[in-house]
Amino acid sequence: MSKIRILPDALASQVAAGEVVERPAAVIRELVENSLDAGSTHITVEVQRGGTAMIRVVDDGCGMNREDALLSIERHATSKIRTKEDLAAILTFGFRGEALPSIASVTRFRIATREKEALSGTEVEINGGKLSSVKDYGGAAGTLIEARSLFFNVPARRKFLRTEATEYSHIEQQFIVHAMAHPEVTFTLIRDGAVAFHLPATKDALERVRGLVGDQLASRLIKVEPTEHKGIRVWGYIGGPGLSRSNRQQQITFLNGRPIESSSINYGLREGFHTSLMKGQHPVTVLFIEMNAEGYDINVHPAKREVRFHDGFAVRDALAKAVSRALEAANKLPQGHVPPSQMARPLPPQIAVPQQQSFALHTPAAPLALKPEVSISMPASRPAAPPARMLMPASAPTPTPVFESPEPIKPSFVEPAKPAPERGAAPEQAPEAEVQPESPREVEMPRFRILGVLHRLYILLESDEGLVLMDQHAAHERVNFEKMRRAMEQGGVPSQRLLMPLTLQVTPRDADILRRHQETLARLGIEVEPFGPNIFKVEALPTFLKTDDPVTWLDQVIEELQTLSAKGSSLRLGEDMIATTVCRHSIKANDKLAMPEIEALLRDLFACEMPYCCPHGRPTLIQMSLKELEKKFGRAAP
Ligand code: ADP
Ligand code: MG
Questions:
Q1: Calpha distance 302→309 (Å, rounded)
Q2: Using an 8 Å Cβ cutoff, are 226 and 233 in contact?
Q3: N or C terminus of the chain: which is more exposed, having fewer CB within 10 Å?
Q4: From CA 600, how far away is CA 417, in angstroms rounded?
């Protein structure tokens, strides 16, 4: 039985390996998927040197008998599909029977496996595709697969491996997505002998997510309640406004438990996050999509990362709906994570720091009990007592910002405003959608104390939880944006007739854009009429517009129309236009605000539906909690 034989198509396997095994992380993906398919409840992944030296996956799944263990390393050997019909309804992860032979052809490979009832198991060794030994195995039930020296026999491919740290980070990413998708399985990741993750099985998806991303990030996630649209169910967790990433690493989506990517998903998320996401940024998501396996094709990507949906629009809409609903339900204040480079430097010693009377300065008797949550919402009915928390030890001098403002800014409390008027029912709300019980939107405005203005840019506020910085420009943008959007929905932005209509000469392409979007423009307060080939008459402009050069402004509007209509949905067009045009007409960053204006701005902001970010997704408010400050000042153990 131990006679060496060459697998019939070792070479073919190596070629296929190029597709399946791009890098160590891909090996992990295949092996972990197999372990999951085998019904394992414990999966341990161990790697050495970024997986280039050794990858080992041990599971307690069904195991294989000798015949199957030998078959598993033959090409196109799979226990998972037998017929074409099976292929159409694949729910297991593997299905091509290519992974093991491919991996075995480019590594020093070992399978040790035993079925639960079997007295003895089987151990098979393969070296670069050549079967080198088959023997009995007396280990635990389940399967151990080990792949050493990746690409040892294909130097050309070995060259393409990146640094061990990079390869490890891909492995970790791969591990994270699998562990997230299967909280019911205990997962362990061991890196160079040290446990990187140990995640006991749990029924709670969020607990698993927390174990993987840490408490801090997990506490900033918003729950997406199960939402169904055209038979597509979406649920999970997303980062709220102000939480985003410059790449898609933390945009994690699963389709029936399989981590996948798809452009429909990207579109859906973008649509759902809409103004809550900064341009060029990507959301943080852990979203589970569940649908009938006949609705998509998974067999389009060699590494099974991408899927093709038969109805991509439905998927997009399902995601958009689930996400926008969750965001609206959970307006949360983004926590400030100020990169050290942007942190305020300590005041130079020669600056006089008079005592600020308005602070309550006393040392708390008990240690601070601070909630880890991000939200700083607090009941509006709280008595307006001075903050009982210490801001500085009484003995230390309190640095006080020097205001340029002629009238000294007196700290004052700003009370919540009335709830914002309900918006009209979202037009995209399909009737068949499972509608979440719509709770009346209650505006819970945190109580703030205005401390001052920083560089005419940021309003400093004291909240119960710490220091809050408001970007006055971003806040104004949000307020103006929602005001105009409401106006647009309720019959149009107020406009002003021009005494002398402007004539606008445009290119044929622009003329087409103007004609197509005449109605949207009218709702935005811009009234244009065709006035000959490629000439338009501008009859009215929005009242908010304060520009000496309306023609240039209109040029920009047309340009925006063009880009937006090319990529966005027509439903959003008006909204997007407002988001791009109001920006320039909001208060400038350097405008000096008087106290009543600041108060009004705060009130208006909290009457908004989405107060915590501007229409472009930048945060309007950033909080530095006392806890964070304590850490920075070394007052509390980190
Ligand atoms: P596929 O997963 O596409 O079927 P693979 O090459 O990944 O192809 O695996 C081949 C076969 O080996 C599987 O169909 C399965 O029967 C068996 N197998 C692989 N890994 C395991 C495992 N960890 N536990 C039990 N059986 C396994
Ligand atoms: Mg497989």
A1: 16
A2: yes
A3: C
A4: 9
Instruction: At 230, list the tokens.
Output: 């055209």
Task: Quote the longest CA-to-CA distance of the chain.
Answer: 98
Pairing, β 296-297 against β 308-309: antiparallel
Residue found by looking up tokens 């999970």 in the block: 236
- In whole angstroms, what is the distance from residue 278 CA to residue 329 CA? 20
Q: Which atom of ligand 1 is nearest to the CA of 98?
A: 6
- Indicate which atom in ligand 1 lies nearest the CA of residue 35: 23
Name all residues whose Cβ lies below 6 A of ligand 1.
30, 34-35, 38, 59, 61-64, 72, 77-80, 94-100, 143
Q: Which residue minimizes the CA distance to atom 8 of ligand 1?
A: 97
Tell me which amino acid residue 172 is.
Answer: E
56-75 as b/e: b if 16+ CB within 10 A: bbbbbbbbbebeebbebbbb
Give the single-character DSSP code of 434: -
Q: Which residue has the higher pLDDT, 539 or 612?
A: 539
Q: Are 86 and 78 in contact (CB under 8 A)?
A: no
pLDDT of residue 387: 32
Q: How many Å apart are CA 421 and CA 489, to the nearest integer?
A: 12
Determine phi and psi for 495, rounding to 5 degrees.
-130, 165
SS3 226: strand
Predicted confidence at residue 433, as pLDDT, reads 36
Residue with the smallest CA separation from ligand 1 atom 17 is: 72
| Nearest CA, atom 12, ligand 1 | 72
| Of 420, 235, 244, residue with least CA distance to 325 | 235
Distance 97 CA to ligand 2 centre (A): 6
- SS in 3 state form for 532-567? CCCEEEEEEEECCCCCCCHHHHHHHHHHHHHHHHHH
- Segment 317-371, tens digit of pLDDT: 999 999 989 988 876 454 444 333 333 333 333 333 333 323 222 333 333 333 3
CA 49, CA 31: separation in Å to the nearest integer? 18
Under DSSP, the state recorded for 201 is: -
Task: Say if residues 114 and 144 touch (Cβ distance below 8 Å).
Answer: no
What angle (nearest 5°) sits at the alpha carbon of residue 169, between those of residues 166 and 173? Answer: 145
Helix (H, G, I), strand (E, B) or coil at 483: helix
Residue type, 311: D
Q: Are 504 and 515 in contact (CB under 8 A)?
A: no
Flag whether the pTM goes above 0.85. no
Assess contact for 286 and 323: CB atoms under 8 A: no
CA distance readout (Å), 239 to 77, 112, 242, 305:
42, 42, 8, 23
Band of residue 116 on the pLDDT scale cut at 50, 70, 90: very high
